[in-house]
Write a structure and sequence with these properties.
Strand content of chain A: 15-25%
Number of helices of chain A: 13
Helix content of chain A: 25-40%
Largest sheet of chain A: 8 strands, mixed
Oligomer: homotrimer
Chain lengths: ~425, ~425, ~425
Amino acid sequence: MIGEKIYDLCRELFPINRSLTGDGVRKTLNILKRELPELNIFEVPTGTKCFDWTIPKEWNCKEAYIIDPDGNKICDFKVNNLHLMGYSIPANKILNFEELESHMYSLPELPDAIPYITSYYKQRWGFCITENQRQNLKDGEYKVYIDSTLKDGNLTYGELIIKGESKEEIFLSTYVCHPSMGNNELSGPTVTTYLAKYIQSLKNRRYTYRIIFIPETIGSIMYLSKHLDTMKQNIQAGFVLTCVGDNYSYSFLPSRDENTLADKVSRHVLKNAVSNYTEYSFVEDRGSDERQYCAPGIDLPVCSIMRTKYDEYKEYHTSLDNLDYISFKGLNGAYEVYIKVIEALENNHTYKLTVLGEPQLGKRDLYPTDSTKDTWSIVKNMMNICAYADGKIDLVDIAEKINIPIWELYEIIYKFKNEKLLSIV
Amino acid sequence: MIGEKIYDLCRELFPINRSLTGDGVRKTLNILKRELPELNIFEVPTGTKCFDWTIPKEWNCKEAYIIDPDGNKICDFKVNNLHLMGYSIPANKILNFEELESHMYSLPELPDAIPYITSYYKQRWGFCITENQRQNLKDGEYKVYIDSTLKDGNLTYGELIIKGESKEEIFLSTYVCHPSMGNNELSGPTVTTYLAKYIQSLKNRRYTYRIIFIPETIGSIMYLSKHLDTMKQNIQAGFVLTCVGDNYSYSFLPSRDENTLADKVSRHVLKNAVSNYTEYSFVEDRGSDERQYCAPGIDLPVCSIMRTKYDEYKEYHTSLDNLDYISFKGLNGAYEVYIKVIEALENNHTYKLTVLGEPQLGKRDLYPTDSTKDTWSIVKNMMNICAYADGKIDLVDIAEKINIPIWELYEIIYKFKNEKLLSIV
Amino acid sequence: MIGEKIYDLCRELFPINRSLTGDGVRKTLNILKRELPELNIFEVPTGTKCFDWTIPKEWNCKEAYIIDPDGNKICDFKVNNLHLMGYSIPANKILNFEELESHMYSLPELPDAIPYITSYYKQRWGFCITENQRQNLKDGEYKVYIDSTLKDGNLTYGELIIKGESKEEIFLSTYVCHPSMGNNELSGPTVTTYLAKYIQSLKNRRYTYRIIFIPETIGSIMYLSKHLDTMKQNIQAGFVLTCVGDNYSYSFLPSRDENTLADKVSRHVLKNAVSNYTEYSFVEDRGSDERQYCAPGIDLPVCSIMRTKYDEYKEYHTSLDNLDYISFKGLNGAYEVYIKVIEALENNHTYKLTVLGEPQLGKRDLYPTDSTKDTWSIVKNMMNICAYADGKIDLVDIAEKINIPIWELYEIIYKFKNEKLLSIV
C-alpha cells in the first residue's frame, strides 16, 4: 500500500520547523527533491513585490524556551516547535507572571493541545502551551529566551514540471509552511510527492503537470505573479492538496466558478469512488490557496479534494494534529482518489461516433462472448457510448448521463477507437 | 415617522371625487403640486388616439341622489361619492322600485359596504348602496337625480422628472382615478409623493427619476404612447405604486419577464427587510398598470411591491377601504421598503477588484480595530467582496451569493473605493 | 369509434407472417395500400450498403413443423407463425430429443406463451413452444421440417408523403416486421394508417407529412441512408408509432435531446389529455427506431407516445400479445392522442400581438356576451394571449405558461387573427 510509504515520508518531515520562510522549508524541499530529483527549488528575495504583497523577511530560530520560577525549562522549541509562535522576534528577558501571560496562548476548550499560532505581519513574540500546563504555572519571575532571526533573506519554494504530449496543464499545489502537524499540512506535500511519482510513471501522458510546493497565501500569490499568463493559458484543471491524511471522511471544496472541469471531474470521482463525501461551499468555507487561484482576474479552475477539511476537526492547528491523527489508510485513500481524478482527466475527451446510425457491433465481434452477470452492463455501456458520443459532450458528461463511473468506459473507448468507431473532437 | 405625514395627505385627498377624468383629478394633482412644486400637470384632449385606445369624454358630477317614496334623500353623492356609479350619465326621472333595482349595486356578502362600480366605456347610470340599506327600501316611486356631464374635455395627469447624473431612469407610476378609498388608491399617490421628496433630497443622485400620477389603464396607455421610445431606452427599473397603505402584509408582483433588475432588487430588499411577503404570479395575479408596462413590444422592467394586494382583501373596491383600513405604520413600512429599493439601485454597480489575488487588507488598516460580535462578519464581508467583485456580477448578485442584505456592503464598498481597490465596470 | 376500424385492420393483418423481409411484408403493405392508395412500396436489394449495415438476404417460409415420436405434428408454423424462429434456415432431419432441445425456446415463467425469437444475423434454425407443451415432450426421434428460403432478394417498405403548405415535415415511422402479435406491432401500422387518413382529410394542411412503414432497425437505417439530408432539413417533429393498442396505460419516450418540439408537444398533450402517463428515459429505456433517428449526427427530433411500452408488459414478444391484448378503446385512445398532437403542431406558431399595450377588446366585441361559468376563463385566456404573445414563445409555451390545454386557445387565436390582433413571427 502506497499509504505506508507516504506515511513514512510524513514521519521523516514531521520534526522540521517549517514557516513561511527559512531553513525548515529548505530542509523539507531537499528531502522532497531526494524523492523527486527533477524538483526545482527557487529562492525569492525579501522585499520582492508580488501583486499587492511583498515577500517578508526570512525567519529562523535556533532555540527558544522559558525558565520558570523553579528553574525548569518549559515551552521548549526543541521539544515541540509549536511552543513558539511562528515569526517570533528575538527575546531575552526576565518577566513576572503577569507580563508573561500576555504572550502566552492556550486553548481552554482543548486543555491537552498546544495551539499553532503565527504572527507573520506584526512583529511580536509569543509562546503556545497546553491549558493544563498553563494552569500549573505560578507567580514569580520567568526568563524568556528566543534565539530567532528575522532579516532579509528569501522565500523558498519547489516546482516540478512533468511534460506531457500537450502544453495544456493539470496543476497541483500544496504547501510547506506549517511546523509539526500531520493532516494540515504534512499529508499535502507527501501525497503530492507520490502523485508526482505516479504521473512520472505514466506512458503517453497527455497533459503537462505543474506541481508546486509553496508557503500558503504569500507563496501562491508570489507564484501567480510570476506565472499568471502561462497558467491562465494552459491550466485545464487544478487542485490544492491539503488535509489528505486522516481516515474520517472525504470533503470537496469547489472552485469559485463551481462548475469547471476540475469541479466536474472531482464530483464524478467522489460520487463513484467513495461511500460518501461532504461538498463545502466556496462562499462559506474556502480557506486555502484556492482563494488566490480563484480570485477575480485570476480565475483558475482550482478546487480541493480533502479528507477531513481544515477548520472542521477539533485537532486542527494544534499539536493534536499529529502523526496519530493521520494514517496509512487515510493517506492511501486520498492518493487513490486523486489517481482516479488524473485518470479521468487523461481519458476525458469529447468523442464522436464515426458512423451514422448505430454501428453493427456484431460484425466487429465487439459483443462480449462470455455471458456473465456483467455482460449485459457492458453491452448497455457500449450502446450508450454509441448513443451519446455525439461530439458535443465529453466522456465525464456521458458517464454522468448514463450514471456509471467513467472508469467502466475506458476499455470500451479503447476498443471502439481501435475499430475506428470513435474520433476525438 | 414619515407615515404620519403620508396619512395626513391621504386624509386631505380622501373626500375628492376622482375618476378617469374630471375636476377631481385636477384638484388632487394641484394638492400634490403644492407638495412637489416641480410636478407638471398635463391635459390630453378627448378623442386623442393612444395605441389601440382613445381618450374618453371628460366626466364631472355636481350632485346625485335618490329621493325615496317617503321623501328621504338616499345614496347622496355628497355624503359618499361611492354612491354614484363612476361615469354615470345625467338622469332626472321618476321610477318605480322595480325599475330602480336594475340600476342599483350592493354586496350581499358584505352588507355594510358600498361597492365601487364604474362604467367607463358603456353609457349608463347607477347607484351603489349597502346591502343593509337596500333591504329596507320599499315599493313606491323613486326620484333619481344625477347632475353629471360627460362631454369632450381632457384627461389630466402629473409628471415629475428628477434629473440625476445619468440619463438612465428609475420609473415610479401611481394612479389618481379612484374616489374615496384608502389602500387602493390613496396610499399610492401619497407614498409616491413622499418618495419623490426623498429622491429630491438625495445628493449625487445617480439615476434620473420619472414619476407619474395618472388614471389607471387609459393613463398608462396614453403615457406610453407619448414616451415609449425614451422609456424603453432609459428605464432600468420601474414600479407601480398601489396598495401601499395597510399594515397587514407585504406582497410582490413581478414583471412579465420575472427576472429584470427591478424584480431582482425588489425580491432582495423584501427578503432582507421584512419578516415575510407573498410573491404573486404575473400570469395569474397581474391587475394594474404593469399590464401595460410589460405588454409585448413594450417590455419595460416594471413590477410592484405592495402591502395587501388589490383583490386580496375583502374591503377592496368598497367603502370599507377607508381611512381606517390604512395606517401610519402601514404607509411608513411601504415607504421604507421603497427607500431601500432606491438605495439598492443607486448603489448597485458591477465592481471589479483592481488588484490580482487577495489584497493585503492589513497594510491598509481596513480590518476593524475593535472586536465586537460584528467584527468577524465585517471581515467576512470584506473577504467576500474581494472574492466576488469579478466584474461580472453586480452588487445585488454578490449580496445574494453571500446571503446578506446589500446595505451591509455599502460602507465596505465605500472604503474599498477610497483605497482604489474597486473599479466600476 | 375509429378504434373499431383500426381493430378490424389489425385482425385482417394478424395471421400474416411478417419478418425483416419477405412476402409477409409485401402482403401487409399491399393491404395498407388498399387503405391508403397513395402509399408507395419500395424494394431494396440484398447487399445494399446502408451506413454501417447491409441489407440481409430475403427470408420466406412455406411450411415448418416437427413430427414427435408418436407421429403428431407439433410447432406447426401454419397454426401459429411464432412457432418458427424468425429467419430459420431450411431443415429436414431426424434428431433425438436431446439434440432437438438445443433448438427449442420456451418461457418457464410464462408457461402458456410461445416466445417470439429471431436470428437475423446468425444462420441457424429453431422452434418456439409453450413451456407447458415442452414439458410433455418425451424421449425419442423427432422429425424437423423447415421449408424456408434465405437468398438474395429485397427488403420491402412503404412510404406515404402527404404534401402540405410548407416543405417542413412531420414524420411518422412505424414497423411491419413482426409476425402475429397485437400491441407490438400491429397496433403501430394500423393506427398510423388511420392517422394518415385523418391527415389526408385536413384542409389547409400546414406541414408535409412523411409516413413510413418499415422493418425495425435495418429499415430505419436504410431509410435514413437514403433520405438523411432531406429529413434533417425538413423534419420538425417525428414519432415512432409502436405499442399503441392496449388499454392499460400511456407512456412517453422522449428523443435523445429530450427537449425538441416533438417532446414538448407530446408532454403537453399527454399532460392535458390523459389522466396519467409514464415518462420513460431515453438513456435507460429506448429500444425502437428512435435509436437510429436520434443517433449522433442524425439527431432528428423523434420521440414516441405509446400505450403500454414494449418490454414493460409480460405478454410482450410472446403469443399472448394477441388480438385479446389490444382493444377498440386502446387503439382509439392512442389515435385520439396523436390527433391532438398533430392539431397542436398544426396550430403552433410564435404569435406577436400587433398593437402596443393591451388591445381594447370591448370595441371589437371579443368579450363573450353570455355569462356562463366558462366566460371568465375565456376572458382570462384572451388576456393571457394579449400578455404572452410576444413574438418570442410559441403557442405551446404560452399554454404551458398559463397552464391550460393548447386546444382551448385555438378559437381565441382564430378570432384574434381575424381581427388582425396577432401576426405570426
